[in-house]
Amino acid sequence: xxxxxxxxxxxxxxxxxxxxxxxxxxxxxxxxxxxxxxxxxxxxxxxxxxxxxxxxxxxxxxxxxxxxxxxxxxxxxxxxxxxxxxxxxxxxxxxxxxxxxxxxxxxxxxxxxxxxxxxxxxxxxxxxxxxxxxxxxxxxxxxxxxxxxxxxxxxxxxxxxxxxxxxxxxxxxxxxxxxxxxxxxxxxxxxxxxxxxxxxxxxxxxxxxxxxxxxxxxxxxxxxxxxxxxxxxxxxxxxxxxxxxxxxxxxxxxxxxxxxxxxxxxxxxxxxxxxxxxxxxxxxxxxxxxxxxxxxxxxxxxxxxx
Length: 306
Ligand code: CP
Ligand code: NVA
Known about the structure:
The chain is an alpha/beta fold. It has two domains: 16-134 and 294-305, Rossmann fold, CATH 3.40.50.1370; 138-289, Aspartate/ornithine carbamoyltransferase (Rossmann fold, 3-Layer(aba) Sandwich). The protein has helices at 21-35, 59-70, 91-101, 112-121, 136-150, 166-178, 194-203, 237-243, 251-255, 276-279, 286-305; strands at residues 48-53, 74-78, 104-108, 126-128, 157-161, 181-185, 209-212, 222-225, 261-264. Strands 7-6-5-8-9 form a five-stranded parallel β-sheet, with helices on one face. The protein has a four-stranded parallel β-sheet with strand order 2-1-3-4, with helices on both faces. Strand 1 (48-53), helix 2 (59-70) and strand 2 form a beta-alpha-beta unit. The longest helix has 20 residues, at 286-305. The two termini are 20 Å apart. It binds phosphoric acid mono(formamide)ester and norvaline. The site of norvaline has 10 residues, from helix 6.
């Protein structure tokens, strides 16, 4: 049975914290139902969705395109030389053109500020497919994965080790909404965004979030890491490698958390944030996370664009 939810139809989805906990629960229930084959409707029949990418993508692009097709809509994907948001024309102008052609926009932009501008000017709903600040669609799929492997989210403890980046920020919001304990371990100077932490503490109990610079995996049910240099930070890769020494998820660390699965949003920089042994090991759920992008985003699009 799918829980009734407050409608998010026509709303933008910029961050996990745009949802309340009931809406998040409803999305996850629908995502599980789609994956189990208990829901196969086509609420986007006759609609047209645009996807706009300023950054490379594998999982996000393909899972959204497949999901859009399965929900019955047509797709236009814009990359590289197309649109050139903010260069060939302003974000505001581009938004006010694109929204006249399509029924919804999925955008992966370099800058979160530009995404907020796009959403502001577009009269059609906008879904965030990653910015420098957040990656909420990834985290919806990760919550689904955590439920599949560990059941009740409120009984789980995710330890995120690495850069306080878009993944860390969105995990922090998800923890506040769904009540799993979250420990974010970063090197000094690479903390998650203060405004995200503040907002999460205001919506959640705050008790379940721990920020530290010391690697600890006590009572972890999941250990999550991401690249040390995100897209757009390629020039910083060498200094970051130095700063993140000691924050690698390797077998020794996994051995000290025998009850934990290993998570990574992918793509991974093997040999940096994670070793082959861990990512290819029996406790790795990284491909399950990648698969769940499809179902989580289908649920999201069915509710927002449907
Ligand atoms: N995890 C993720 O968003 O992958 P892509 O960058 O390949 O889309
Ligand atoms: N933090 C990574 C996530 C990729 C899905 C990046 O922004 O490049």
